[in-house]
């Protein structure tokens, strides 16, 4: 007798409750280390194999959709899993359960840095900046292999890096993404993807269209509002929303987008920015919760717990709107050649943006001498070749930096 395959397993079709969804995702939010790719593996093990909320085909299609959209792919997959299980409240419960643990941990870390100024200057915190160099370098390394597998896309990545180095601002980043997408649409040739299975989601075309309109209205309206009022708070919200709207290719790409929003104007000190980014690697859950840290440590009307929670919601809002907007139209979009090639170009472009950020601000702010470089190199080796979990590498690097500072 043969054992049943994943495809032959019976999928649980009964409707669940938001409480059930919250508990399932809270467990994952407390234990899911390793970044978005690892998160997707945890999700498959939990919801396809163990709970059987959906089958492998449906899960693979859902992952393809969320990797196509801007935003944190693993969090978006979780949102749709909650939506399918328990409706709109299930969608909210999945996001809260998966996101809250790391957000609370980072806000507490931010409050510690704010209250104890000596902590920000300690060897431990400097080690968090150094390990950020290794982690961003690992992200560039891995993303380049998967998103720039040929010469045209490697060239697009280099072009995007040069544009963002010449124009180190939000304008340069938007220009790099736009140029990469246009070149991808115009020149890239990709093999046609296999599979024609159709899937539907419980969102009407009318709701999807309204979500897309709201997404675009905020993307255009928030900068106009900020310019008209001169409000630093509106400018901060606009920059964080834009960062969430333009992240393609992985959560690490949010680093340069947020840096250009909060550091040049003095909302967050660059040293505190990099320390928080390093700390974000040591907590489970999505990297987007880094925005909660920035909101808590910010100088201005938004700070502390209120600032952290507001920026947390702000950075996830465009991902939610894009997801709701795309679900009803996904089947028509996914097979369009122009859409696929443009997205391939954009993905190559974000590799270049992240490469530029690896130099400035990450490298220039963290590497001050040979010992810092050696520590970063050791951390990179542990991550890439030793395959040591990031949380352990963060702890070891921070301890090493503190030892060297003695």
How would you sum up this structure, described in words?
The chain starts with 17 loop residues before the first helix and ends with a helix. Mean pLDDT is 85; it is low at 1-8. The protein has helices at residues 18-31, 36-50, 56-68, 73-115, 117-120, 123-147, 151-166, 170-187, 205-229, 232-246, 254-262, 270-280, 290-297, 304-326, 330-333, 337-366, 370-384, 390-405. The protein is built from 18 helices and no strands. The chain is globular and about 60 Å long. The protein is an all-alpha fold.
Task: Characterize the main sheet.
Answer: none
Question: What Rg is obtained from the alpha carbons, in whole angstroms?
Answer: 21 Å
Helix content: over 70%
Strand content: under 5%
Number of strands: 0
Q: List segments where confidence is low: pLDDT < 50 over at least 5 consecutive residues.
A: 1-8
Which sequence of SSEs, written as H and E, runs from N to C?
A: HHHHHHHHHHHHHHHHHH
Overall mean pLDDT score? 85
**Which of globular, elongated, flat, extended, rod-shaped describes the shape?**
globular
Distance between the termini: 65 Å
User: What's the multimeric state?
Assistant: single chain
